[in-house]
Design goal:
55% of the residues lie in helices and 0% in strands. It has one helix and no strands. It is mainly alpha-helical. The termini are far apart.
Length: 22
Amino acid sequence: HRNQVKDFFASLRGSGSSTKLV
């Protein structure tokens, strides 16, 4: 399975969110 966590964060950054969790 693909890394859903990484894909999740990638989606957030792609959304332009100002959440710097990683």
